[in-house]
Amino acid sequence: xxxxxxxxxxxxxxxxxxxxxxxPDALFSHALLGLVTGLATGIVxxxxxxxxxxxxxxxxxxHGENYEAIAPLWRFLLPVLGAVLIGLLFLRxxxxxxxxxxxxVLERMEYHxxxxxxxxxxxxxxxxxxxxxxxHSVGREGPHVYxxxxxxxxxxxxxxxxxxxxxxxxxxxxxxxxxxxFNTPLAGVIFALEVLALEYSITGFIPIILAAVSxxxxxxxxxxxxxxxxxxxxxxxxxxxxLPVLLLGLFAGAVSAAYIQLLQSIxxxxxxxxxxxxxxxxxxxAGTFGVLVPEVMGLGYDSLGDLLTQTLPWTFLLVxxxxxxxxxxxxxxxxxxxxxxxxxxxxxxxxxxxxxxxxASLTGADTSHASFYALxxxxxxxxxxxxxPLAALTAVVELTHSPGVIMPGMLTIILAAVTSKQxxxxxxxxxxxxxxxxxxxxxxxxxxxxxxxxxxxxxxTRFSRQEARLSREQAQRxxxxxxxxxxxxxxxxxxxxxxxxxxxxxxxxxxxxxxIDLLEIPADRRELAxxxxxxxxxxxxxxxxxxxxxxxxxxxxxxxxxxHIYGVLTRGRIESAYRY
Length: 580
Hints:
Blueprint: H1 2-21, H2 27-59, H3 72-93, H4 101-112, H5 118-133, H6 141-158, H7 163-182, H8 185-195, H9 202-223, H10 242-269, H11 275-292, H12 301-309, H13 314-333, H14 341-363, H15 370-386, H16 389-400, H17 406-423, H18 429-436, H19 445-451, E1 463-466, E2 469-471, H20 472-480, E3 485-490, E4 493-499, H21 501-509, E5 515-517, E6 526-532, H22 537-547, E7 551-559, E8 562-570, H23 571-579
Parallel strand pairs: 1-3, 6-7
Antiparallel strand pairs: 2-5, 3-4, 4-6, 7-8
């Protein structure tokens, strides 16, 4: 008895929550969901990092990324064995899920309203962990974003929340993933808003900020607050120092374009091959690079630390840049489920360090400042590759805790982004990967606004569902209810919606009629189609256009074979959501 009473009490509360969350201004409820998503993301990322770093600590000598210290044979075999494991894992469980990471998040947001699967979550967790541990040249940030986004989506689906709320939770998970990866909560927020093309509004900001802060707090609590990269302070002291900064922007933009083009070409060329064959080729390529240039194996954060704190010879830097570019493009392009953000930062640091060394050799300046240019290169490469310059600049500032980096960072990042986008006509890495897999992604402000609201926020609830034939008494009772709409059934299913006033008009003209046929009386009857209670206004508009319907009835199954109708939604109500 007690349990049944609890469940009956819980269902109305959840029902009210779902109806409330369909509104774009449900700030408090969305803020709570953002907090929950951030904490869940933080837990998942902590478990992921502990699994990867713990395994690396057992396998590798001295420290967890010391692939350089193991024998060349093992540097070759590890990526090959990892690729075979990934291939077998996906062969057995993927069922069509072969694109993961941030590109997958964009695809699910664009085509599936942010709905993601537990299968994809597990594949990303295991696949990325195996790839990083086995030394493939991939990053962890993309998997972190996917795991956070999928976690938020799965929580929303479990609660049967409206799709606009699920989309918000996906954005919260995205921000939390970046925040916990680098200890950069603000960059996580900006990344989610820029990359997912979300609206800058208080209702969008607050849940995402809470998610980023909560995930970051959990990560800091377990791993400490030390920055991911230790960077010595440096300030530009003269205008002549800006010339290398400008050259770095051009150089980073060109390398970013090459990175994107290589990924696109390899992904497109290998598409006819089976997934297992592709990842096996990726393993052979990664093993070869591991033998020749072991610094490119795995995340490469140890090598990245050297780029930011030491002065390295330009010949080594050039070899390192080319090897990292080819190794990452091959691994990711052939289907290894790792990230592309970390490698972009690595390449950016290499480009920046190389620029700093060359500038010092030409001007006779102190080569110790090369690490400062390496930092700027990281931001430039991130901004150009992701087409997210504000997120890149924010990340650079948060990593250095120095406002002095803002001005040169802005110059370098913007110049790199413009060079890649305008001079080389390249879209972001993620959009390019989507298009290489036959999908498209376009940011549309009207569509984005409609996706922020659920159908229940615009539906009309002043309706009654009736059979086609009514007695005069039934019709008079409906008149007294002042209904806006009458849903008329045909063969047991909703077929038309007609204005409630049509009944009053007919009764006044047919005073002797004892029975009324709602399909025969003069009225503006609109053909109906169903739309699920979870749907967004954008989904509703798509259904109207696709089905050729004139109105929609909002429904949800409440028991097997039983659907409850919540309201009527017209095209005019949808259009008013973005006109006013």
